[in-house]
Write a structure and sequence with these properties.
- The structure is a single chain.
- The protein is an alpha+beta fold and 501 residues long.
- 23% of the residues lie in helices and 24% in strands.
- Among the domains are: 110 residues, Dipeptide-binding Protein, Domain 1 (Dipeptide-binding Protein, domain 1, Alpha-Beta Complex), CATH 3.90.76; 211 residues, Dipeptide-binding Protein, domain 3, CATH 3.10.105.10.
- Helix 11 packs antiparallel against helix 12.
- The protein is globular and about 70 Å long.
Length: 501
């Protein structure tokens, strides 16, 4: 098994998986196409309204932002060739590359940038609702200086702002139609989409990186049963697929390379802190002591690193080592539950069935909790239901989910601040919120790191949820398909793929 481990030092930020249509995989000698298999449908083709990391993973190939990022987390130019930041940290001036086109043939200009960010912030006349609070909270207004120069003015300094700017720039006025007909400036255009079946991507000939992409077409196919999908992979129906560890042995080694790498994705047993038993810190701490992380990792994703807060050790500079904050101690778990009057604790854990790794982890946790007298019912739902009921409406008791990392600590840790729209575990802690939000206004990286480390420690000590591991990914790639690169965020970068000659 080939191990492609990258030391991901993240310097500076986003959004699921996508799906696609039929056909046999490309034979490199005569067809310049590839087939990607993914386990869930897209939550929206609209890049501003999508929330799922799995959707981002595919659709980053369709859209382009002002900036991009490298496999090591470095911020790179994209539609903008350069930028300046005012001394007070409030004005970001971007100079666009000239001669760029969207998939519909229209030119990319400053008016499109203004429109995109106005729409995100709820300042577009036709769409006055805030689309992404992350942008609305920090952006005051956007000024068009000329056709290829735009200034984004912030409400207050935000040291993480550049890391948010791979968000899609879309043609002016195209927002209402993006969900049906996505138009971006990325390396591939969306040729067709069938909900629940898949997505076909075609090479965009006028992509701004000369010579890319190499492939003429990529089909992204949705599968619903992992075992059947691995059989299809072995039969040559797919060229790329993320594989759960327990199925890796079924992938033909003579046909596929298995890449195994740290993902900057934190898997957690998310506890809804507004559910009465979980409002008691003793109950949350008891569950942390009751879960044997080492055993869980060995069974679900060997090699993964255990964690005690929502932060990956891969982000070394920002990471707070919480050591053995909650060593496996079932007796201590029982004592805390008894002290809290919850010796007969019974709750339901709802998990999206499309993600085997999360279902497997939930099943193991269920068995571990039984040893301390806790009954955890396991309820499966589809991904769209999970997004609606749990991530949006907070209508649940517990869940197992993988939270994808970002290019900066802020969007990772802001998820649990008081008042944040997607704080789905409903954790509230004034000191935590103050630490995370204060880091936004710090210009010193050292000072920011100290605040983020403080926040991680609070999250862990308060047992906001049961944080489990930074999940190792196992990716099967056809041996003669070159150009695979792992990233610190969810992204299947297809533009560099090519068949070996």
């Amino acid at each position: 098994m080939k191990r492609a481990l990258a030391t991901l030092l993240i310097l500076t930020m986003l959004f699921g998986l996508a799906a696609c249509g039929g056909g046999k995989p490309a034979a490199p000698a005569h067809e310049n196409k590839a087939v990607v298999a993914i386990p869930q449908d897209l939550d929206s083709l609209d890049p501003h309204k999508s929330n799922a990391s799995g959707t981002q993973e595919v659709m980053l190939n369709v859209f382009a932002g002002l900036l991009n990022f490298s496999s090591g987390g470095e911020i790179l130019p994209a539609l903008a060739e350069r930028w300046e930041i005012s001394e007070d940290g409030l004005i970001y001036t971007f100079h666009l590359k000239e001669g760029l086109s969207f998939h519909d043939g229209s030119e990319v200009d400053a008016a499109d940038v203004k429109y995109s960010f106005d729409r995100l912030c709820g300042k577009d006349i036709k769409e006055p609702e805030v689309v992404k609070a992350t942008y609305a909270d920090v952006i005051d207004h956007v000024n068009v200086l000329d056709d290829h120069t735009v200034a984004i003015v912030l409400k207050k300094p935000d040291a993480s702002f550049l890391s948010y700017l791979y968000i899609a720039v879309i043609p002016e006025g195209s927002g209402p139609s993006q969900a049906q007909t996505p138009v971006g400036a990325g390396p591939f255009r969306c040729a067709s989409y069938t909900p629940g079946v898949g997505l076909t991507l075609e090479k965009f000939e006028d992509y701004y990186e000369e010579g890319l992409p190499y492939l003429d077409e990529v089909e992204v196919k949705i599968f619903t049963d992992s075992s059947s999908a691995v059989l299809a992979l072995a039969n040559g129906e797919y060229d790329y697929m993320s594989v759960a560890y327990d199925l890796v042995s079924q992938v033909p080694e003579d046909q596929f390379e298995i890449y195994n790498y740290g993902s900057n994705t934190i898997q957690l047993l998310g506890l809804n802190n507004s559910f009465e038993p979980f409002s008691d810190i003793r109950v949350r701490q008891a569950l942390n002591y009751a879960v044997d992380r080492d055993a869980l990792i060995e069974l679900v994703a060997p090699g993964s690193q255990k964690v005690y807060s929502n932060f990956s050790p891969l982000m070394e500079y920002w990471y707070e080592d919480l050591g053995e904050l909650y060593p496996y101690d079932p007796e201590k778990a029982k004592a805390l539950l008894a002290e809290a009057g919850c010796s007969d604790l019974h709750f339901t854990c709802t998990v999206a069935s499309e993600y085997d790794q999360n279902v497997n982890a939930a099943t193991i946790i269920k068995n571990q909790l039984e040893k301390v007298g806790v009954t955890m019912d396991l309820k499966l739902c589809d991904w769209n239901t999970w997004l609606e009921k749990i991530y949006t409406e907070f209508d649940y008791e517990a869940t197992v989910i993988g939270f994808t990392g970002k290019l900066d600590p802020d969007p990772i840790l802001v998820r649990f601040t008081t008042g944040f729209k997607r704080n789905f575990i409903e954790f509230e802690n004034e000191a935590y919120t103050d630490a995370v939000l204060s880091a936004r206004e710090e210009t010193s990286q050292e000072a920011r790191a100290a605040l983020f480390k403080k926040a991680q420690r609070i999250l862990g000590e308060e047992a906001a949820s049961v944080f489990l591991m930074d999940v190792d990914f196992y990716i099967a790639v056809k041996k003669d398909l070159e150009g695979f690169v792992p990233y610190p965020v969810y992204f299947i970068d297809m533009k560099n793929w090519r068949w070996a000659e």
